[in-house]
Each structure stands twice: as structure tokens, then as C-alpha cells.
């Protein structure tokens, strides 16, 4: 009579999911900090300095989003 014995190792699925979640949260936080820093730095410029860079004040947030999160 033949039989089969299956030995399973510990399932690290939950641990891997938690690690991925933490990694994603860190990445999201880093990107948000980059967004806020870009908005802060561009907002500190005068209208003349922004004009020299070819940036209107109304486009600061969209530029910061692109800088932090890509297109």
C-alpha cells in the first residue's frame, strides 16, 4: 500500500503582506514629504522668480504632484 506524506513549511504569507504594507506606507510617506517640500519651496518664491522659471503660481501643486508621484 502506498501513501503520501506532505510536509508543509511555515506559511510566511501574512508576514510578507505586513512587510509589503509597511514598505508601501513608508514609500507613500516619503512621496508625500517630497510633494509638501516642493509646494513649500515653490510657494516661497516670488512671482517674478516663478515667472523666470516659467511657472505660474496656480500650477505649483500640479508640478509638485508630478515631482513626487510621476506622470
UniProtKB/TrEMBL annotation:
YjiS-like domain span: 25-60
Family annotation (InterPro entries): YjiS-like (IPR009506)
Superkingdom of the source species: Bacteria
Name of the featured protein: Uncharacterized protein YjiS (DUF1127 family)
UniProt source species: Albidovulum inexpectatum
Amino acid at each position: 500500500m502506498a501513501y503520501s506524506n506532505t510536509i508543509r513549511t511555515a506559511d510566511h504569507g501574512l508576514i510578507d503582506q505586513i512587510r509589503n504594507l509597511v514598505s508601501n506606507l513608508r514609500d507613500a510617506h516619503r512621496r508625500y514629504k517630497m510633494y509638501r517640500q516642493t509646494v513649500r519651496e515653490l510657494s516661497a518664491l516670488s512671482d517674478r522668480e516663478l515667472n523666470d522659471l516659467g511657472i505660474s503660481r496656480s500650477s505649483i501643486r500640479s508640478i509638485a504632484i508630478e515631482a513626487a508621484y510621476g506622470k
